[in-house]
Amino acid sequence: MSAHLVKEGVYSVGCVDWSVRNFHGSTYVTRRGVTYNSYIIKDEKTVLIDTVHAGFTKEFVENIKEVVDPSKIDAVIINHIEPDHSGSFPEIVKLCPNAKIYGTEKARQGLLKYYGACGDFVSRWISVKTGQSVNIGRRTLEFIDVPMIHWPDSMFTYSAFDKILFSNDGFGQHYATSKIFDDEVDYCSLMDEAKIYYANILWPFGQLLAGKLAAIKKMNLAIELIAPSHGLIWRKHIAEILEKSAYWAANSVQNKAAVIYETMWHSTEIMAKKIADGIASEGVEAALIDVSKNERSDIAAYILDAKGIVFGSSTHDNFMLPLIDGFMHFYKGLKPKGRKSFAFGSYGWSGEAVENLEAVIAESGTEKVLDGIKVVYAPSKEELDKCFEAGKEFAKKILNGN
Ligand code: FEO
Fold first, then answer.
1. How many A from CA of 367 to the centre of ligand 1?
2. How far, in Å, is the centroid of ligand 1 from the Cα of 103?
3. Could you give the CA distance from residue 384 to residue 157 in angstroms, rounded to a whole number?
4. Choosing from 4, 53, 150, 237, which is the catalytic residue?
5. Which residues contact 334 (CB under 8 A, 6 or more apart)?
């Protein structure tokens, strides 16, 4: 992708990674690809905001050169150091020998650890925090540190002149496209990706994000564009993404449930279906999710606002099955709050899986509201009736909030 004009004096110079399908190791399947956004502001001084993934350095530099000779860049702002944004930092330091470099103190420390003192960047580094700014001519760029949203070094940059909030990972979506604005792509797909992104990148930091969103609201910033480092720039749907982000950050849940399971010989699967049927019979939406056939990142997005999450596994080698085991560790890391749960599963002779699941349910802070259900080999009619009734009872607890 080449450079795009965002508004007078502001350019998008980032890159599109159309083919990447795994992000954050294997935790996040990016089926629509990813963009690594970067912006240039041309004023009396020229500023580059954020860099990109190392693999896109050549293309990135070509995009920059469409707007400005890199040696003429006066300032580089590093909002976040994760390698998808800082990979090309060493090359940019080299190509912009006259640039002062702005970021949080944590960013400086992290860049030193990742790249060493490349290009002696430390001598040009200025550590900044909320309340500090830099004047570049008609514009003054303000810094807003947002630690743990989602790394310790994270910050936003705001241009009051342009009414643009450069939010880095905040309000992002993994959505490869040749377009740059939210109203240029399908709205439902965009919001789906925003939800998947929130669930997989920001969920564990919801409480911090809620506080930061409230603080930013108090700052009364005039915002016409939110320019994140991933995906589309918010132009038309700013109110919607701010409202959704606040909703997710508040750990809001709906009266819906997921029955997440892994099965060996379908017995646990048959139980799962009956439990889901029981939940649905009370009018509560119930999704049946086989962890061997669904991506973790999609499951996270579904359960982001689900009040009920039921877990099932067959017992294998005295333990739960390996894929649900992996999912449970992922689930615990999301730090879900205010959810209800119970466990179920089939077994042959030992039956530890239900206790294994219940242990992680407890560790995750999720409330176990029903006793586990265990079935030897294959469920009988009576045992399936018990699964259905458990589903009904679970749905009532979701609906009644007890
Ligand atoms: Fe897009 Fe936290 O990196």
1. 31
2. 15
3. 56
4. 150
5. 199, 203, 204, 300, 364
Task: Please report where in the chains the tokens 């016409």 appear, as a residue.
Answer: 224
Q: Answer yes or no: 316 catalytic.
A: no
Q: Is 329 a catalytic residue?
A: no
174 belongs to the catalytic site: no
Contacts of residue 314, defined as CB under 8 A and 6 or more positions apart, other chains included, come to 262, 263, 264, 265, 267, 268, 320, 321, 345, 346, 347, 353
Longest distance between any two alpha carbons in the chain, whole Å: 78
What is the 38 CA–ligand 1 centroid distance (Å)? 13
Separation CA 225–CA 6 (nearest Å): 9
Question: Can you read off the two tokens belonging to residue 211?
Answer: 């506080």
CA 69 to chain centre: 34
Sequence-ordered list of residues with C-beta below 8 angstroms from that of 318, at least 6 positions apart, any chain: 350, 352
pLDDT truncated to tens, each residue of the chain (402 aa)? 699 999 999 999 999 999 999 998 888 999 999 999 999 999 999 999 999 999 999 999 999 999 999 999 999 999 999 999 999 999 999 999 999 999 999 999 999 999 999 998 999 999 999 999 999 999 999 999 999 999 999 999 999 999 999 999 999 999 999 999 999 999 999 999 999 999 999 999 999 999 999 999 999 999 999 999 999 999 999 999 999 999 999 999 999 999 999 999 999 999 999 999 999 999 999 999 999 999 999 999 999 999 999 999 999 999 999 999 999 999 999 999 899 999 999 999 999 999 999 999 999 999 999 999 999 999 999 999 999 999 999 999 999 986
